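Look at one record.

>
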Amino acid sequence: MKPRTEVKIGGLVLKNPVMTASGTFGYGEEYSPYVDLNRLGAVVVKGISLEPRRGNPPPRIMETTGGMLNAIGLQNVGVKAFVADKLPWLRQFDTKVIVNIFGETVDEYGRVAAALSGVPGIHALEVNISCPNVQRGGHVFGCDPEVSGEVTRAVRSATDLPVIVKLSPNVSDITEIACACEAAGADALSLINTLMGMSIDVERRIPHLRNVTGGLSGPVVKPVALRMVWSTVKTVSIPVIGIGGIMETDDALEFLIAGATAVQVGTANFVNPRVTMDIVEGIEAYLARHGIRDVNELIGSLKTD
């Protein structure tokens, strides 16, 4: 018998625990020749703001040892163009669509959430309070428990959709931020966003990124992400989605065993466009091989004694 892979994130039911991570999968169209979107648990689209954003000037991506630095700066088409031009294409697939949202003020977060609430084909919002590559909003909000709670409340009051808050690892204690978001009405948390880093061209003595600093992702961040997910799962009672350096099935399994209800795959999409399909099939094969009938039996099964 085929193992059950269905998981629940707040009020959201996913056919399996594998999602794409925002900012690494565009709006899905570029990957559709390689990925059957119908097989994904969810697609998390590129971050959307109230108005279109051009992002940071190039160069804004740099490969590093064990990972990648980026300083895209949340380039996006804006909420109106997303609903009019991008969402109709996504509606043809039998998968959940989670829209990552961003604002420069608390009020703007609420306005973006309100603009997307009730729109057919949108199943949840992921609130980005953790992007390190913008001057206003993002990381600034995600480092303060009080402000993180304010943003969460503003979004919660503006929508009936499930609210997932994406947390930053660039804090002293991520569980403080997690608790503040849970208390403010978050239905789930996703973590981690990228770690802040930089890289220098020693010949020219200039930063490789025009923005000087950027967000570090890829396999190099996985041990940090895994530890933060494990700590957060023990602290809050809402579901946690694990993100950070998931390159293959075993990486995803580690996050599930640590207690994540689902995972998001990011940088690996740039290396292997089919990686999400490989991980969906890999989780199914693991469950069958170990005689586990339901993926929920695996979630949080870490033995530490």
In short: The mean pLDDT is 95. The radius of gyration is 18 Å. The first helix runs from residue 79 to 90. DSSP finds ten helices and 16 strands in the chain.
